[in-house]
């Protein structure tokens, strides 16, 4: 907010941006905590309840930020990113192999759920207007992602900033492809899931198809 206000020479813009970031950051962070609670509960098959899974995550984040500040956040980002990419790729490989291999999985899905491979998706949910709204959303919301801007502003050198900006365009698409592919493959093992049950598709796939 201070950067935008300084560039545009407007204190009003500084205040407005800060308010918007705070307001929209609350549900954004909340969604991450809810997701973590669901994953922990799903992977432990309810041994750790949703509430305690979320609470443990909040406590862990508060402790390492309080003890080490933004430096720990940057280092943890790198570690988390590498772990996440490795594990999601391994999950994709294990699940697809357990279902008979990727070519066979594709044939099965084409026979049972061909609509999954169309731009419109199941029940024609993704209309052209919805696709357009997603594109507009990403174009307008990226400047309002404080967690991204904070990391960019942490760079010590301009070269580091440029390198980070470049990697940001490559890493997220890689991370997005595999969870979506797992969700699609989930139609073979758990057809007909809806609502909160559908949110558990990846933990369900892992507990069903991966070694203990």
Overview of the molecule:
Helices cover 78% and strands 0% of the residues. The protein starts with a helix and ends with a helix. The protein is mostly helical. The chain contains 10 helices and no strands. The protein has helices spanning 2-8, 11-43, 50-98, 102-112, 128-141, 146-153, 158-168, 171-189, 195-199, 201-209. The radius of gyration is 20 Å and the shape is globular. Helix 2 (11-43) crosses helix 3 (50-98), helix 3 (50-98) packs across helix 8 (171-189) and helix 4 (102-112) packs across helix 8 (171-189).
What's the overall geometry?
globular
First CA to last CA: what distance? 47 Å
Roughly what is the average pLDDT, rounded to an integer?
86
Structural class: mainly alpha
Helix content: over 70%
N-to-C series of helices and strands: HHHHHHHHHH
Number of helices: 10
Specify the oligomeric state.
single chain
Please supply descriptive tags for the structure shown above:
212 residues, mainly alpha, 78% helix, 0% strand, globular
How would you summarize what this structure contains?
With 212 residues, the protein is mostly helical. It is built from ten helices and no strands. The relative contact order is 0.10.
How are the elements arranged and paired?
Layout: H1 2-8, H2 11-43, H3 50-98, H4 102-112, H5 128-141, H6 146-153, H7 158-168, H8 171-189, H9 195-199, H10 201-209
């Amino acid at each position: 907010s201070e950067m935008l206000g300084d560039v545009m020479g407007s204190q009003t813009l500084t205040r407005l941006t800060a308010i918007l970031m705070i307001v929209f950051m609350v549900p954004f962070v909340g969604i991450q905590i809810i997701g973590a609670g669901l994953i922990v509960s799903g992977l432990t098959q309810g041994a750790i309840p949703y509430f305690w899974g979320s609470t443990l995550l909040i406590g862990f984040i508060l402790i390492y930020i309080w003890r080490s500040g933004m430096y720990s956040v940057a280092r943890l980002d790198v570690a988390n990113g590498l772990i996440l990419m490795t594990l999601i790729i391994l999950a994709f490989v294990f699940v697809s192999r357990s279902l008979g291999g990727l070519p066979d999985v594709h044939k099965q899905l084409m026979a049972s759920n061909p609509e999954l491979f169309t731009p419109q998706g199941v029940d024609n949910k993704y209309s052209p207007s919805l696709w357009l709204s997603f594109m507009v959303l990403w174009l307008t919301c990226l400047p309002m992602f404080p967690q991204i801007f904070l990391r960019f502003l942490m760079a010590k050198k301009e070269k580091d900033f440029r390198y980070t900006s470049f990697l940001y365009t490559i890493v997220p698409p890689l991370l997005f492809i595999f969870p979506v592919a797992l969700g699609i493959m989930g139609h073979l093992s758990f057809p007909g899931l809806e609502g909160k049950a559908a949110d558990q598709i990846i933990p369900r796939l892992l507990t069903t198809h991966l070694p203990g």
